[in-house]
Structure formats: C-alpha cells, structure tokens
Amino acid sequence: MELNDARTQHTHPHLPPPRAPFHLPTWASAPRPEAAPGIYRQHHTPHDPKAAEQAKTPAGPLLLRAALNLLVAFFLYRYVVEAEVFLIQAVGLGTQLTSALANPIALLLGVVAAVLEIWVFGRMGRWREVGRRFLLPVLSHTVTEVPTTPEAVPVVDVWAELRPAGEAVRRLDGEPVGDVDYVRLHQAWRTVGTDPVAWQEFAQQLAARGAAACAHPSEQRDLPGGRAARHDLLVRQVRLGTAQDVPKNPVTHRNAGFALDPRVLGTSLLAVGPAGTGKTASLARPVAEALCLQALAGAACAVVVGAADADLGPDDWYDVVIAPGDPAAPYGLDLYGAVPHSDEAAARLADALLPDELAPRAESARAAMQQVVGPYRAAYGGYPGVRALRALLAGDEEGWAELGERLRKSGRWAEFEADLQQRERAHGRADDPGALLADRLALLDRPALAAGFSGGPDAKPAFAMRALEHPLRVRVKLPERSHPEAARILSRLLLGQFTQAAADRRDRELFAGLVLDDATAAVDAQAVRGVQRLRGANAGVVLLLRTLSDLPEALRAPLFGAVGNRMAFPGIAPWDGRLFSEAWGTHLVRETAVTHVPDTSGGTVRRAGRLVRKALSGTTAQTESVTTRDVERHRWSPSDLAHALPSGHAVISLTSVTGEQVPPLLVDLRH
C-alpha cells in the first residue's frame, strides 16, 4: 500500500524537499530499538562500546601492526621447525626421514608451536579485530549478494492486532493508509478493550469508512500543507536535529538523531535564546506540528500560543483559532476557563491581570475579585463579562444595586452578604484593589477586543481550557503589536488556566501540551508552581524566552527547578549562561599537565656536555614531567554557552517523566 499524501506538496520555505511515497509495511516494521531519552528511535543503531573502542584505532596502524606480527610469526615458525628437525635427528629418531613433517612427533610439536604463535602474535597484532573490521564485511557481502526476488521479501501483516475485529479489517488491505490513520485506528482499538458494544461499533465504522474510521472530528487525516519536521507517530517522536560527535556529548547520543516525545515533554521544557536564533522555527513549530498530528491520531491535545505573525503553522492545522482583535476570528476566549468553582476562577483571573511589579498586592486583589465573581455567578447563573466585571470592581452603584436585588430574589443574599459589605466598604479608598483590577481590565475592554471577552449576546463562541479532555488543536494569536499589555495579560491567563485544567483532568489518557512562543510575561510564581504539578498529569509546557533577565530574579532559579528540560540557543548573555551552567553542574575530567624544568642531573661529564650544547645551540637541556589528575569542570561554562555555540545549534539537557536524565547535548538543529 502506497500513499501519495499531502506531505509531498510543500509550500513553506523551510519545508524539506518532497519525500518518497509512504509505504505502510516498511514504516510499521522499521526497527525501533529501546533508547535513552532524546534519541530518534526509528532505524537507530544502539551504541556498541566494544565496536566504538575498536573504531578508535585507525585502519593504517592496525593493518601495519597485524602484518608485522604475521611476518615475525612466519620466520619464527621456520626457525622452530628447523630446530625440531635438528633435535630429532640428533637423538636418532629421524635419521631415515627426509622431511620433519613426515614424523608424527615433529608434526605434533609443529602444531603446538603454531598454536602458541597464533595466540601470542595474534593478540599483539589484534588479528581478530582485523578480521572483524575488514575480512568479515567482504565475505558477508560476497555470500549475501544474491538477486532478491519479490517472493523473498517477507510479508508483514500490519493489521494483525485488529484482525479480531472481524472481516471489516480486510478493507484496509486495499486502501491507502497513512501513519496518522494507522496510529488512530490502533488507538481506537485499544480503547475498545473488551466492551462488546464498543467492539461492534468499531467494526461497523471500519466496514463503512475503512481507513477514515474513527476519524478526528475535523475529518482531517493529515496536516494540510505538509510537514516541516520528520515524525514517527508510532512512538510519538518528532526529530529536531542530530547530536554532534563531540567529547562533551555522551557516547550513546553521538551522531544519533535528536527527538522529543511526550515522555520528555511531560517534564516541560524551557528554551532561552535571543531573537533570530531559530527558537520558533527549530523548536516551537516542530513541537506544535507533532502535537497536532498526535491530536489527529487521537493521542494528544494541543494549545499553541504566540503572536499573530509567529510561524506556528497555518490556521488549517487547528480546530479552534482565537485571535483577539481580529473580527474575522471565529472563536473567543473564556476568561474563567469554565472552572466550576468561582473562587478558583476569580483567583486565576486576578493573578493574570496583575503585572510582576504589583505582585505584593496579589492576595488582596484575589479577595476583591472573589467578592465580585462569586455573588455575580450566584445571582445571574454565569460569570460576568469584562465590561460588567469592570463596572462592579469600580463600584458602579446601579450594577451593585441590581446585583443585590437579584441575590435577594434568589434567596442567596445571606450567603454573600459579608463579601458584598466588605467590597462596599473598600470602594473609594486609595488602596482599594478593586479599582486597580478595574484599571487593568480596561486593557481588555477595548472595542477591538470586546467581542472575544464581553460575554454578551454578540460574543463569539468561547473556548474554555476545560476542553483539554478532547483531542483538540487550539491556536491563540496574541495582539502583541496593537495591544501589547493585553497580550501579556492573556499569556499569563492562558498559562495559568492550562496548568490548572491539565492537572484537574479526570481522564489523562491524552497528552496535553502547551507551546508558548514568548513566555516572558506569562511566568509568575503561580505558573511555576503549576508547571511542577504537570509531571504526574500527562501534560507539559514548552516555554520560549529571549533572556532570563526579563523575569524577576526571584523566579529564575525556581523556574529552572520546575522544568525538566533546559535548552540554550547561541548568543545568550553570560549571566543567562551562568544559570544553565549551575543547573547542569560539573563532571570529572582527566587533566594532563606537562612541566619542563632545566636538567641538573649527572656528574661533571654530563654537566660539561650540557654547557657545550648550550654554547653551540643556545638552548638549555630540560627534563619533562607529566602529571595526570581528575578535576571537576563545568559541563558547559557560561563563556562557552555565550560565545562558543555555533549558529544553528543548541545545547539541551533532558529529563523523562520516569526520572531518566540525559546530560547536556550539543545538537545541530539544521539536520
């Protein structure tokens, strides 16, 4: 089965050239050995320590040593044979013999001598390694070079796992099936389990729709417009580059493909690098592409947040596109995330509204927001829109009067009386947090943004973060140019809502991933604590920063501790490199020191000779001493990270959700 799918039609300038037609049996049966985190497993050759040690010896010196040992062994054997003949004749045992080989005793002694010489000179000449490296490949190529007939190609039943579903599976044998279809159908089959009703429904869908059965609600079976990265959906990996063959990299990763997957992204990733170093093109877009493909396969849900002009894939990749400030955008954003508890939703919104410099007033602001949102929801049966919330926080008399009247009619006045009275007493005071929140809400209460947040009859359908239990693909385009401060508020709100919703999911079968293209304004103390909770929730975030200096100093170390994967791009500042260097720690390095001192040894004759040599050549005789010791050195120093990283590369350390760690790797992101 071959599939000429949409991946061969590339329009993006960074996309690779068209690939060969997709052949499902070849792809499904490709070797994928178990490997350490970060290694692209498809067609990977595991590291062989013995072969690597042998490969260190160049071929020339190895062959020369083997030839010299063979030559010495040959001449020595001749002398041994002649000595045997002489001794046998001397004792009268071989007087009538013309050849030593005809005598059984001489033959036995010759065999023993040959075995001893092969053992001694073979070890010194490393004949076994020569045979393994040079003779065996030639013999193997000669023996196996037989024309392959179509009958000799093994037949792989790629649908063996689905065969119990019945005759409907046979339809798949004659249809073009892509990797998304293959993974989606197997994912659906595993979900069916032993439920007979679900089993029957799966078989009916398979019989009616074939490879399109159990499709994503969008009915897409691949990403429109092609793929920019190389993916292996069978193990849910996306290949980003190649780990370099340098001493700083672990030997198990050298020259291996570098890839990310949910078991690594589940510990979250922090990437730091100045603008123009390829963070979006080399990291954010491939990860967003991988999450969207996995969502089509029914294995993930993706939320991708970035500026409207950020290259994070076309809108056709996504099911929900939210673009505040764009009248053509079909969806708005639920500022409360459809959280069932009003206090929780109010606290999250208050945290998002306050910038870092107002963090000391966060507690009073949360209380003020809760004193408004809770009573409003009890009175009206829903959360307030931006304009209504702003008016109540500012102390609008008509709004408060109507709110009180509705609470009395509903019989819930006593429940919220204390909150309403406390909020009323705070109105008009200089330190009223409600006035501060109202001023911050004014940044969202703009005509261009109102349709996305107002909550009124003209509002757009709102996306709520509570929908992360479904394989959705969401793209949020922040208005960074037209409304930069509103964009910062929304980025904080989205990160906070995601960490909260992902950790509170009942069904965690789907991997929930958030890609935040510029997380400078989104990281606060609440977000750091939320990221830490994601490790056990089958979820993770990818945070991109231009520099750590944009964050408050008190948040930098906690953020490094909250994420399991840390990535440094070329051109970072030395003070940023210091944090990476401290997080990656030190390791033992064998250091060799060579010292030269004047030679003062010997008696009068040697000293006189040295004086004559100095007079004739002008150089002083010296002795050389070599000292070797193990010392601790930084894996990557701040100076190396700031000045030695080549363009198109990055250094990244990994931690999987099971605790496996990979020290920092130098990765070429261009291959």
TrEMBL record:
Residues 1-27 are annotated as: Disordered. The keyword Transmembrane applies. The lineage of its organism: Bacteria, Bacillati, Actinomycetota, Actinomycetes, Kitasatosporales. The keyword Transmembrane applies. It comes from Kitasatospora saccharophila. Gene3D superfamilies: P-loop containing nucleotide triphosphate hydrolases. This is ATP-binding protein. InterPro entries: P-loop_NTPase (IPR027417). It comes from the Bacteria. Keywords: Membrane, Transmembrane, Transmembrane helix. The chain crosses the membrane at residues 100-122.
